[in-house]
Amino acid sequence: MNQTVYSIEGKEVRGIELNDAVFGLPINEDVIWYAINNELANRRQGNACTKDRGEVHGSNAKPYKQKGTGRARRGDKKSPVLVGGGVVFGPKPRDYSYSIPKKAKRLAIKSILSLKAQSDTLKVVEDFSIESGKTKDLAGLLKNFGDGVRTVLVLKDDDPMLKRAAANIPWLSYLSYNRLSAHDLFYGRRVLMLETAAKNLNEFYAGKSREAAE
Question: What is the DSSP letter of 189?
Answer without folding.
Answer: S
